[in-house]
Write a structure and sequence with these properties.
With 122 residues, the chain is mostly beta strands. It has a single domain (14-112), classed as Beta Barrel (Thrombin, subunit H). The protein is built from one helix and seven strands, in the order E-E-E-E-E-E-E-H. It has one helix spanning 104-116; strands at residues 17-18, 23-27, 33-40, 44-49, 58-65, 74-89, 92-102. It has a six-stranded antiparallel beta barrel with strand order 2-3-4-7-6-5. The chain starts with 16 loop residues before the first strand and ends in a 6-residue tail after the last helix.
């Protein structure tokens, strides 16, 4: 398994929230598709992608979802530092990112995911 830096359970300081729906992630400036959000915590997000993100890079990402029973999508912005990248399947990478900043909309989106699914300590 290719591994740039692995975060162990002992390093996790905040409980993770898993997602019931799909949250797509796009590079903010170019709108290029990055991948999907896998889970999140108060301090970070994990995203899947087809190529590993470079550890140490600061990324600005647009989160996009379409909540159930709503006819329009929601978008929020996240600024984060890539902390690790790890191959999770033969064609996919998991990327752990430390959140540096969240737009108001991103905060509301993450809060709504908390309401949808109980937290899991990991």
């Amino acid at each position: 398994m290719d591994q740039v830096y692995a975060m162990t359970k002992e390093n996790r300081m905040h409980p993770r929230q898993t997602l019931d729906g799909t949250v797509s992630l796009f590079q903010h400036d170019t709108k290029e598709y990055i991948g999907l959000m896998v889970d999140f915590s108060a301090a970070g997000i994990m995203m899947s992608s087809y190529t590993p993100l470079e550890v140490g890079t600061i990324i600005e990402v647009d989160m996009v979802d379409i909540p159930p029973n709503i006819d329009s999508r929601r978008t929020g912005q996240v600024k984060a530092e890539v902390m690790w990248a790890d191959r999770i399947t033969p064609s996919m990478y998991g990327n752990g990112c430390k959140v540096i900043g969240l737009s108001d909309h991103a905060q509301l989106m993450l809060a709504s995911y908390n309401e949808e699914h109980p937290s899991k300590a990991s």
